[in-house]
Amino acid sequence: MTNGACYIRVSTSYQEELSPDAQKRLLLDYAKEHDIIITEDSIYWEIGISGRKTDNRPSFRQMIAAAKSPEHPYDVVLVWKFSRFARNQEESIVYKSLLKKSGVEVVSVSEPLPDGIMGGLIERILEWMDEYYSIRLSGEVMRGMTEKALRGGYQAVPPLGYDRKRGETPTVNEQEAELVRMIFRMYVEEGRSLTAIAKIMNLGKYPTKRGAHWNMTHIRYMLGNPFYIGKIRWNHTSHMDGRNVNDPSEWIVSDGVHEPLIDEETFQKAQELLKSRPGWTPGHIPARHWMSGLLRCTKCGGPMIYSTKTKRNNASMRCLRRTQGLCDVWNRITIPRLEEAVCEGLELTFRSCSFEHIRKTIRALPVDTEAILRGQLDELEKKERRIRKAYMDGIDSLAEYKENRQLIDRQRAELSARLASFSGSPPDELTQVDRLQMVSNIGHVLEILKDEEAEMLKKADAIRSIYEKVTYDKAAEKLTFYFIL
Fold first, then answer.
1. Phi then psi for 308, rounded to 5 degrees?
2. How far apart (Å, rounded) are the C-alpha atoms in residues 201 and 216?
3. Mean pLDDT, to the nearest integer, of 371-377?
4. Using CB atoms within 10 A of its CB, is residue 313 exposed (0-12), middle (13-18) or buried (19+)?
5. What's the chain's average pLDDT?
6. Interior CA angle at 331 toward 328 and 332, to 5°?
7. Distances from the Cα of 68 to the Cαs of 5, 82, 287, in angstroms?
8. Which helix (H) or strand (E) holds 238?
9. In 192-334, where does DSSP find H-type helix?
């Protein structure tokens, strides 16, 4: 007998595809005919997911990892068609080669291949046809969506400040709209930086559209979104990964029929400021290290500034007032040691959930934050009912249902914690909920600081979301962290 796994995938298009249950039935029938043992744990499902990239297919990656493991649980992976395994020829070849080295064969039950070199040739032709079909289908979808955008059609979730039912024009959510107006006012009229605005929003417990914490990127995107002046922008970012911004010449901006929240004069002022402020505090040139502006001398309280690496010394942070003759202590710490110490301090705090210095401040702003949080909790209840129905109707597998439930539970816990922190205690009282929220924030910052590909400004923005300041005492070799919540 041979041990095997089944991989079942249905993309979002549902064109020329069998249902998940039909694929499962065919795969199990094939396994029975060929004496292949398939258990429920060895059936991997992927519903509503494209086969172009493996990054978005967690079940696929889990299957590959299991097949390559030393335990060697599978000898064969069964798919309905090779297109279910991948629609990208390069990735298909790579993963099939990895499995082959581990003694695992990929078999398409509806596309039998002859033995020998001819079978390999036919398999490559099928892979090329699958990728061609995927590219052609993607092009058709893009043309349709582009045409819809040119006509002013809505095809995405509206931003903060709006609600929208499927097939209808977005309507203003007045509670969220006040947040949007407040952000534009702080940036255009009050001259606050992107980082400062994000900090104010987080201190006030005001959530993003998805209930997350604000950062500089969120604020910048909102200030540059023409949706707020009644327009629709399409093809702003790459549809392959959603992260890379396309050249402005490729954007499609058309008039919408929704109600604008911001007047065009204010919006244009914001665009001019965004161009003149490349991502740092007004009046400052972009810093040379993500701790610039946060690190202070314990003796005099003055800032410690970045000192360039020389032939004799590493790059370092040193007391500015010492160089001006205003401080009698030579406070200096090398950049490698500083970065190591900051990460060590964060990890220690993350594990112990203990804070020596933490200040909790809630800025009173004219927005009903409690109503916004409760509204987002209500939306999670609706989403939970939808995924339960999808499971009961056989659309989602049990594994997918559990994964979606866990995600909803995490979002509900975070929103509930923020709601309790906002409404349950005096502004200056630090609760256990506050401490847990702070630990969660630290975990997020640690991920960014340890990411070698993260840009300096992203790290600077992250570290400023949790620190009010950090002081350094060279004599005692001690960093003191002052957290802010």
1. -65, 150
2. 11
3. 75
4. exposed
5. 77
6. 145
7. 12, 19, 45
8. none
9. 194-203, 216-223, 264-276, 320-323
